Amino acid sequence: STQSTGVLVTTYGVVAPLISVLQQSNERLKKIALDALRNLAVNETNRLLITQQGTLQHLVKLLSSPTPSIQQSAAAAIGNLAINGENKLMIAQQGAIPPLVRMLHSDNCEVQKNAAGAIQSLAVNMDNKGLIAEEGGLAPLISLLRSPSEDVQKNAAGALRNLSINPDNKIIIAHMGGLTGLLDLLGASNQDILRHVTGALQSLVHHDDAKKLIIIERGLSHLLGLLSSENYDIQKYAIRIFENFSVTETFLLSILKTGLFSHIRKLSAGALQLPHRLVIKAKAFVALFEGSAPRYLVPLLYAKEESLRYNAAIELVHVRPVENLKQILLNKPGLQVLLDIINKERDSPTNYFTRALEAISHIALLCFNKNTEQPNTNTTSSTSTNTTENAPAAENQLQVSSETLSTPMTSSSSSSSPSPSPSLLSTPLSSASFVFKDCINNPLFHDVKFVFPDSSDDEDSSSSSSSSITNININISKQMTRKEKQRENVVYAHRILLSKKSEYFNKLLTSGMRETHEREIIVQQVRRSLFLRMLEFLYTDCVSISSVEEAAELLTLADRYQVSHLIQCCEKYLIEQIRLDSVMEIWEIAEEFSSAVLRSGCLDWILLHFQSFINSDCSLPLWSSPHFVSSLTCHFTSVINTLT
To answer: Which of 131, 216, 220, 384 is the most exposed place for a label (fewest CB within 10 A)?
Structure first.
């Protein structure tokens, strides 16, 4: 079996004595001589040398031996010799094909295996393809596809693969049931069998009858799975089969139902480990389909059959150019069909459901990416009035300034559970803000005070003032006078500033009502500490927020007192906190305050993380709400409108 055996054949005359043994009556010696020739024929140099010394006629004669073991070894030797291109024709001319075909009918699996293997090698020659068919070789090969032996199946499939290249043989194989036998083997675990089967199918699928049978036998779903095979040839043949299906509109829908194009698109994400050459081929195939898809698929959006509508809508989201997508989704019912799939298939997720999720996510990313390509003209830059830098926020808090409210939400928001809000810097306060900061709750020059009769929540009143004041210099920080006690429930403020920063206070303090003249205003059902937080914002345009709950409380107060900039700060903070486990809570806050900004922020996040949102339990209450679904649809429609 090495290159040196060629020297043995010619120098020492090995072939002649082996031929002599083949002519003897001793069956055991014949078997040994045949096996020796088979082993020598593994070497490429030996193959031609053996045939040149007149071995073929003796081997062919032994193919008709009544002894199965002799037939088996003779067929194996011929099979190895037939690997040589010149030998293929010589073996056929010596009359090997008829006895090999007869051997296919043997009850012995080893005889069947070696006979089919020899025919597989001989069938590479174009002339031999026709001769094998004429001798009736196709029918027994098709029968052997159902053999209990994998080796027999492999060689029979390999022979049919080579024979199917002949145009006449394609028709005969299909009519004799060869396609059904090949399709039955698509579920085989043997990679060699799958390689031969897919190779044969990619030759046979050029005929429409073959395509129809593949559809009936559900062969496309098996072929889709073979795209993930580790064997390059299997992947290549599977893609070629799908290519043949996509040539005509008649069979296009059949491959759409398999999810083929969604499957191949995962190539770009590395989900399928295809060789580079095949990746390029697959992507080119998908691009070709996407360019012609609207012509075939748009009419299907109106079909009565549900599966037609579903498949058409799912695939149409990948059309080119992108501008056509807006027409399909809005002017045509593409978007509605996708949402119908989500609604109807959610309880028992199907392939349609998964593909619809991927389609909607694809549209959302396309839209948001297109938006982020546009220059942001709204962001306000820092001005020269800033006098300080690096003003730190408190630990685990976000300090929000009204000067930074125009920052848009980007598509990078994480869908994971949030960690504590990081310490971030606000826009540095102006010098005027620092002056006003000292005026917060300062009785100096105040002209109005707010009294909180119910306040008992947040002032540290643990110190007692029952003891007399004996040493003011020492105990001033711990003792509390009666006057200071009264101040626990009071907040001092300045009318001019309140009326400028709040529409509510402007009307309250300038309308001529009682509050216009009185210096004391009673505040009910509001915590003093929360009111102070709002007052701090009115004086400084800056506020620290550390949780969603805190933002919701401030939003409630800002809404009550019509402090529009504080409302915007709270909305900005809440949008930045949207995660999978908080989106429902923030959506409820948006609904409570009819906040279009928060609604939009929630819906943007949901669209960008649509798959994880739909598949999570937290989406159940929202998705069961017709109002939410309607809001999402309207918002999605407005987002798609940006694709102009």
So the answer is: 384
What is residue 256's predicted lDDT score, i.e. its pLDDT? Answer: 62
Q: Over 80: is that where the pLDDT of 211 sits?
A: no
* 91: amino acid identity, one letter: I
The CA angle 10-16-17, to the nearest 5 degrees, is 120
Q: CA-based angle 330:335:339, to the nearest 5?
A: 150
User: 362-384: per-residue pLDDT in tens?
Assistant: 888 878 776 555 444 343 333 23
Tokens linked to 513: 């009502």
When pLDDT is cut at 50, 70 and 90, the band that residue 61 belongs to is very high
The C-alpha atoms of residue 224 and residue 230 are separated, in whole angstroms, by: 13
Residue type, 112: Q
Closest CA to 153 of 189, 101, 128: 189
| CA–CA distance, 642 with 644 (Å, rounded to integer) | 5
Distance in angstroms (rounded) separating the CA atoms of residues 99 and 102: 5
The string of pLDDT tens digits covering residues 441-485 is 777 777 788 888 765 544 443 333 333 333 434 344 444 444 454
CA angle 613, 616, 620 (to 5 degrees): 90
| Ordered DSSP codes for 299-352 | GGGG-SSHHHHHHHHHHHTT-SSTHHHHIIIIISTHHHHHHHHHHHHSSS--HH
* 164 has pLDDT over 60: yes
> HEC states along 462-487?
CCCCCCCCCCHHHHCCCCCCHHHHHH
State the pTM of this model. 0.50
pLDDT tens digits for range 36-47? 999 988 888 888
Distances (CA, A) of 227 to 127, 211, 234, 271, 394: 33, 18, 8, 11, 55
Determine the distance from the C-alpha atom of residue 180 to the mean position of all C-alpha atoms in its chain, rounded to a whole number.
Answer: 33
Half-sphere exposure of 451 (CA within 13 A, CB side): 9
pLDDT band at 150; cut points 50, 70, 90: very high
State mean pLDDT over 152-169.
93
DSSP state of 408: P
Of 631, 545, 530, 534, nearest to 588 by C-alpha is 631
Output phi, psi for 519, to 5 deg.
Answer: -95, 0
